[in-house]
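Lab notebook: predicted structure, single chain.

Context: the supervisor wants predicted structures on file for every construct in the current expression panel, including those that have not yet been purified. This is the next one on the list. No modifications to the sequence; it matches the entry in the shared construct table.
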Amino acid sequence: MRSTYRSCTAGAATAALTLLGAGLPAVPAGTDGPDLSRFYAQRIEWSRCEGEEMPEDLRCGKVTVPLDYARPGAGTLDVALARYTATAKKKRGSVLLNFGGPGGAGIPPLAHAGEDFMELTKGYDVVSFDPRGVGRSSPVTCGAGTGRFLEATDGADDARDPRTALRQLRRAAADCRENSGPVLPHMGTVSVSRDLDVIRAALGDKKLNYLGFSYGTRLGAVYAARFPDRVGRMALDGVDTLTDTPAEQGLAAARAQQTALEHYLRACTEQVTCPFGQDPRAAREQIVHLIGSLDDDPVPTDYGPDLTGQDLVNAIGQALYSERSWPVLTQALNSLLMDGDTHGLIQLAGGGHAAPYPSRPLRDTHSAALDEAGDRAEKKGNRRDGKGGLVDDTEVPLDNLPAALMAVNCADDPDRPSAEHITRQIGRLRAAYEKASPVFGPSRLTQMLMCHGRPAGTDFIRERVRAVDTPKMLLVGTRGDPATPYRWTVGTAERLGPSAVVLDNRGEGHTGYGSSECVHRKVDDFLLYGSLPGHGSSCGPEE
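Prediction complete. Output recorded below exactly as produced.
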């Protein structure tokens, strides 16, 4: 089973859309609001996907959705799709995948980790998509704003005077508005959930069958609350929180990353190759010391900027997404400490590892490795977009992932603490984050600052995604997950109500489907045959 996520960009979806004739239902019964019948009456035309390394059996298409569902005549955008066709003569319809993010495109991971999902083609067409504002679906960009954000948050956790950083963050938010076009005000999970329903109808399915990873679980939960009568078989792996504020999310994630690091160090110190010896506590102290040393005195690299302590934090964080990356991290650390070789850590910091369907923190999405990739792309003849953003050879801005991540998370968050409140609280929060994780806490603190200067988002998720009246849904939580703590699975299940069935994956890494044979089997059995494990049942770490 292959579970490697490679973040290359899919080719453009080139298929055309046509409208069906008479005889098909328009908007499903019970839908209030403006007439959306022309969107629900679409039929997707599939054709071979364009782009290098796209599998021959993968087909691409698109659906057209309203820019603003409250004003469907005010503009539209196309959502790019990709599909592996079912192998069974009699199929159940389609199963739609979301690989996480927010900000993550869906076509590249389906193209390059498609083997993971071939079992599902025994009953379904397997479909993924680039959500609005992402990848080939009207991608947003902040231009120079992404760099402004990172520059501001490098010093924003200074408790003495964060006001300069907050001014820089407001400038960054303005850059995003200027560069992203009309889609930016209509980003967010509630809008994407409505896109999902249009996609469901265009695929010809009465119910949505769905498999979501990480952020994709938030999307699935919102869909279940928005369209409970249209939920088919829904599996959510690496379950997101529906209630925590950004500051609380960052704190919980810092604790989860620190726990995953402790697990790695315990395993590392059992090996003679561990660069930190055989004492886990001493190893933890050495990691913290090494990060500080690199921040004070970065190590030169063969290309690009010097390796800093923050680059090391990014590399470690990326490796923790999959237990299979632990030996790679150990080798990279040995290379740095013994030979001054930074190559392995730079690759990890840029995401060059085997993490199944990862959802990365903001700073990890725009690391030095990404900057270097942009420089290389520009040298190959790619161009700037005229607004400060680099466009790659498939017309997707290289900062699309962090730009979309900020846009969606801010659209989903109704809180906007004032500059005065942030100034008063940042010192206390900084101490709390560093206590939660001396390694990951400082960079995670940026999550509470992410939305400064942006309009307040919706309260729909916190207020209305609860007690859903749907068929049973399968929720998978992994005990050693560094990104979506297991307690979020339990809390979200309680919030969703009796419909939620929890599978406890007692393993390591982010999500379980790509790393645990047991989780993979139970999710497939549920989606294909409706066979649910008992609530609270578990998969062992070796299964």
